[in-house]
């Protein structure tokens, strides 16, 4: 996990599957993720080490229906096959019994994964052929007990936030080639995944077509309605900012981008911004002027 943290900005950035092959344990190559199966249970260990959820484009189905429970916000991870005693399922069960930390590799592109760690298997739902995985680490809190309503709601919201935001970010940053859509800045630590329609809006889904990779300046400008993006992918800057006289950041970073096309777009057309969502956001930008 320390090795992963050093290579993924403490889990904020994704990693390619070929980069995972660089990991060494006691000087020897050691796979952190199973490239063929969902659950990685090394022969030399008596419990699982990691599990993965394969990438799917928006609207496509995964071979296993992994997901987040609506009631408690926790991850549901499907068995390998239907046999509870399959060695890989037994490996996850052993990790649950011993409360061992695991790594969850979530696919955010072909051969690209966002590692979430540590996560813990906290329960097994045999009738549904799945395990329940906690990505927030509640320690010894029993989610089945009588938690107060506000505390349970907080835990659920925090779980979803920790799961969805990094996955959304990694997917969007990967789609835009790790560059700002407005200015093409390519430093990953200075980039954010901006929602076109905010996630507090029911239309603000955490999908790549509702996202723009933006540097922190342009993300802040978008959120403040200083910068807008038209449905035809042209940038506009609010009129009062165009009339303001200030330093080079205002002139080159904002004013010079007025009525210019986005500099970077995803290579895949099905990952480019949704025109309908851009229109909603652009209307909000114009209304704030």
UniProtKB/TrEMBL annotation:
Q: Where is the HNH nuclease domain?
A: 180-229
- One Pfam family assigned to this protein is HNH_2
Superkingdom, taxonomy of origin: Bacteria
Question: Which species?
Answer: Terracoccus luteus
Question: What are the protein's GO molecular function terms?
Answer: endonuclease activity
Q: Which UniProt keywords apply?
A: Endonuclease, Hydrolase, Membrane, Nuclease, Transmembrane, Transmembrane helix
Transmembrane parts of this sequence: 102-121
Q: What protein name does the entry list? A: Putative restriction endonuclease
């Amino acid at each position: 996990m320390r090795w992963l943290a050093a290579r993924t900005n403490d889990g904020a950035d994704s990693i390619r599957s070929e980069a995972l092959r660089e990991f060494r344990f006691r000087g020897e190559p050691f796979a952190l993720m199973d490239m063929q199966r969902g659950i990685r249970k090394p022969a030399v260990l008596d419990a699982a080490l990691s599990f993965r959820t394969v990438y799917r484009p928006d609207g496509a189905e995964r071979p296993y229906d992994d997901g987040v429970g609506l009631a408690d916000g926790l991850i549901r991870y499907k068995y390998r096959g239907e046999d509870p005693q399959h060695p890989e399922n037994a490996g996850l069960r052993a990790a649950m019994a011993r409360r061992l930390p695991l790594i969850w590799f979530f696919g955010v592109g072909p051969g690209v994964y966002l590692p979430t760690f540590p996560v813990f298997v906290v329960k097994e739902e045999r009738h549904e052929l799945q395990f329940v995985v906690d990505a927030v680490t509640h320690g010894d809190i029993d989610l089945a007990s009588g938690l107060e309503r506000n505390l349970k709601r907080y835990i659920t919201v925090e779980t979803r936030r920790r799961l969805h935001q990094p996955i959304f970010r990694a997917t969007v940053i990967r789609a835009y080639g790790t560059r700002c859509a407005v200015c093409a800045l390519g430093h990953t630590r200075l980039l954010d995944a901006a929602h076109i329609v905010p996630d507090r809006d029911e239309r603000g889904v955490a999908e790549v077509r509702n996202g723009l990779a933006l540097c922190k300046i342009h993300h802040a400008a978008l959120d403040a309605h200083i910068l807008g993006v038209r449905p035809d992918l042209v940038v506009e800057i609010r009129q009062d900012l165009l009339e303001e006289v200030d330093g080079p950041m205002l002139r080159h970073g904002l004013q010079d981008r007025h009525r210019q096309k986005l500099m970077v777009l995803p290579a895949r057309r099905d990952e480019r911004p949704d025109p309908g969502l851009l229109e909603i956001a652009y209307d909000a930008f114009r209304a704030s002027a």
